[in-house]
Amino acid sequence: MARSRKYRKSDRNFISKVIYHSGSILKKTGHFFVRVFKIFDQKLTLMIVPHSQGKVFNLRTNVFALVLGILVVTGIAASFIYFNRVNLELYAKNKTEHEEHLETQANLDELRSASNDNVQVIKRVQKTLSQFSPLSANQTNQISSATSKNSDLSSLFDTQDITSGTLKEVSDLRQATSYLESTIQPLEQIGKMLENQNTLFTDIPNIWPIKNGIGHISMKFGQTIHPIKQQWYIHKGLDFSTWRSGDPVVATANGQIVTVGYDDSFGNYIIIKHKHGIYTRYAHLSTIKVFKGDSVTQGQVIGTIGNTGIVTGPHLHYEVHIGSDVVDPAKYINLK
Predict the structure, then answer these.
(1) Higher pLDDT, residue 171 or 147
(2) Which residues cross the membrane (predicted)?
(3) Which of 93, 95, 237, 299 could staple 319 via S-S, CB 3.0–4.6 A?
(4) Mean pLDDT on 135-141
């Protein structure tokens, strides 16, 4: 019991102290606000005295109103400075955007010029392709009829109308791309045709039989007087002369060596079998650089010019046979 009473007495003393200190704090706080109120409520008189002998203006106020006025003026000045800075930043941003707009406009003008140049190039491509491919010729006829109605690139191609809101130049470039894609197949056909023609030309004797095209024709094909026997006879080939021995002789087409031999009339000679029943003979050689059965390609060196056999000087006797017929080699030289 004694301990319980002791605890109750301690609680009452603690509560009393708390109430006392709380009241003391509230009292001090009240005194502080009263002092502040008295300070702000102090009366002030502002006098405006002109330099001339005019009337003096008296403005009565208190500290609170003065401080509030200063704060308001300071806030207005700060707001003015802030918004002025914002306006300057917006002006600089607008100026930059304007310059970017001008640059974009210049790029757009350049794009339009490039688009127009592409149109002209495509027209030339159309004209060129029409000379090689029937498909391209049909496309060119359609394009030409459209051009008579409208000079725009959109009318040059038989496609859908330009989508609203799309730049004309962009649409033109798309249509140009579409046309160029359509020319891929004709170009591939032309490429295959040229490749086949090139293969055909390498299979037909059509180049100068002396390397690098040197020398000249010293005797043509046909009826002439034999330079030694002095009698009329049929010269069955062409004679090529460089006025010296040792210049390289080349195969005039792809083929296979079928004969390598010597004859009292032809001297050292070579016969090459080509496709399409064509044979070529190379006679009066000083040296032979191939063997029977070898495969040779057009332009490959097969021997050198000499004066073996019945000759009056070093030269190459060159013949072209188609089946059993002897033909004029001059009709095939530089056939390309």
Answers:
(1) 171
(2) 63-83
(3) 237
(4) 50
Inter-CA distances, 165 with 101, 112, 162, 173, Å: 19, 16, 9, 16
Look at residue 253 and tell me whether its pLDDT is greater than 90. yes
**Residues 228 and 141 reside in one and the same domain:** no
- Partners of 295 in the β-ladder: 256
Give the separation between CA 204 and CA 157, rounded to whole angstroms: 43
Are residues 257 and 168 part of one domain? no
User: Which token pair is 159?
Assistant: 């496609």
Q: Rounded to an integer, what is the distance from CA 307 to the centroid of its chain?
A: 58
Query: How do strand 248-250 and strand 255-263 relate by DSSP bridges?
Result: unpaired
Sign of the C-alpha dihedral computed for residues 181, 187, 188 and 189 taken in this order: positive
Are both 171 and 243 inside the same structural domain?
no
**Torsion sign, CA atoms 149, 152, 157, 159:** negative
Number of domains in the chain: 3
C-alpha angle 187-191-192 in degrees, rounded to nearest 5: 120
Q: Residues 95-124: pLDDT tens digits?
A: 888 888 888 888 877 877 777 777 677 767
Q: Quote the pLDDT of residue 336.
A: 52
Domain with 163, as residue range(s), is: 114-185
Q: What is the pLDDT of residue 208?
A: 94
- Do 262 and 170 reside in the same domain of the chain? no
CATH of the domain at 274: 2.70.70.10
Banded pLDDT at 4 (limits 50, 70, 90): low
Establish if 285 belongs to a structural domain: yes
Kindly state the percentage of the chain with pLDDT values over 90: 32
Tokens encoding 94: 């607008």
Non-local CB neighbours of 298 within 8 Å, separated by 6+ positions? 202, 207, 250, 251, 252, 253, 254
- pLDDT of 157 reads 41
Distances (CA, A) of 324 to 183, 271, 279, 280: 45, 14, 9, 12
- 82 within some domain: no
